[in-house]
Amino acid sequence: MVKDSFKHQGWRSQMIQMLRDKGIDDEDVLSAMRSVPRHLFLETMLDYMAYEDKALPIKCGQTISQPSTVAFQSQLLDAKPEMKVLEVGTGSGYQTAVLCAMGMKVFTVERQKELFDIAKERLMELNYYAKCFLGDGYAGLPEYAPFDRVIITCGAREIPMDVMSQLKVGGVMVIPVGGKSQEMLRVVKTGEGPEDFLKQTFGDFKFVPMLEKLDYGKVNR
Q: How many domains does the chain have?
């Protein structure tokens, strides 16, 4: 594995300044992203691009979100240490690591077996102690609910109500919703009814799609 060199740390410092310039002001988010070696969640050949504000390819035709998107979603989540967070779409594991570095208790779901295996191993190697599950993101993790926060890192056609039902009243979901491009939503759950939530919108983004339901049963749980 490529090490976290002084060069990489310098690039991360430049990335943090870029995030500040783009309006990220949550010091917990910035501190976590300063500490997490993004280049170790990418193919070695992309090492030199790791701290540019770009989405980059990973396995299975997926991408790792650009740093400003990771920072923006993390800031919208407004999560505090020890909160129980469900992440849908583990992908490379980078967003997972940022949440862990912020002190969250992270439960993360990935539907692609190859990505799941790589991310789980990488997170363990780097001592980020998330609970990783291979499964259907649309189903969430009902057996581990309720959650204080939910973050969805792929584009959903609509708010997945099965996942919403796993959020505590007063909890927050951050989710991009739409078709080819998505609108970033921050959804606050206000009650137990199917329409008991408030939405705020935060502009257009482009994510890989949240894929349809699969039956994984209890594999790797």
A: 1
What are φ and ψ of residue 14, in 5° steps?
-65, -40
The Cα–Cα gap between 91 and 153 comes to 8
Contact between 188 and 175 under an 8 Å Cβ cutoff? The reply is no
For the segment 119-148, the average pLDDT, to the nearest whole number, is 97
- Domain contains 213: no
- For residue 97, the enclosing domain spans 6-205
Cα–Cα distances (Å) from 138 to 76, 113, 157, 185, 221, in that order, read: 21, 16, 11, 17, 16
Residue 113 lies in a domain: yes
CA distance 173 to 85: 10
Distant-in-sequence, close-in-space partners of 83: CB < 8 Å, separation ≥ 6: 104, 105, 148, 149
Say if residues 152 and 89 touch (Cβ distance below 8 Å).
yes
- Annotated active-site positions, please? 65
> Is 11 a domain residue?
yes
**CA 155/CA 210 separation, integer angstroms:** 5
Is the pLDDT at 128 greater than 80, yes or no?
Answer: yes
Within a domain: 212: no
* pLDDT top residue among 192 and 217: 192
CATH of the domain at 97: 3.40.50.150
pLDDT of residue 1 exceeding 60, the answer is: no
Pairing assessment for the beta strands 84-88 and 147-152 based on DSSP bridges = parallel
